[in-house]
Amino acid sequence: xxxxxxxxxxxxxxxxxxxxxxxxxxxxxxxxxxxxxxxxxxxxxxxxxxxxxxxxxxxxxxxxxxxxxxxxxxxxxxxxxxxxxxxxxxxxxxxxxxxxxxxxxxxxxxxxxxxxxxxxxxxxxxxxxxxxxxxxxxxxxxxxxxxxxxxxxxxxxxxxxxxxxxxxxxxxxx
Length: 174
Description:
The chain is an alpha/beta fold. The protein is built from four helices and eleven strands; from the N terminus they run ββαβββαβαβαββββ.
């Protein structure tokens, strides 16, 4: 018998001063049985960083054809494809060809090594932005994970402030 996803509900109060974007979002996230709380919360962070009325969570780990998050216009054009983690270059190549913009958020203890191994190959994707979280940022986010969350996040000058934590994403490419 296959394991079922765990459902997380998040009420996100967002003040993105960098983009002049403010909103309250009620979100439902399905955590795949193999997904960690860290990855789940990095997906939620990705939502906060690129929030819009049309941004949605994909099936992610359940479907290799889906992004972690994406924004698709009514005509079916993928405006934004967001990946999180350390994907292989082939997956990014495919996503780059399908989407107008591609964002990758790398995190974890192996992120620096992954970047060194892949940086040259990723330079050719003109629509790709790569963001790296600090080594403990993902852990800070994971500690906030609860089945029902109320989160107030402020983004200012590239820093994300949330519930006593400060996350400083670093842009590596794009």
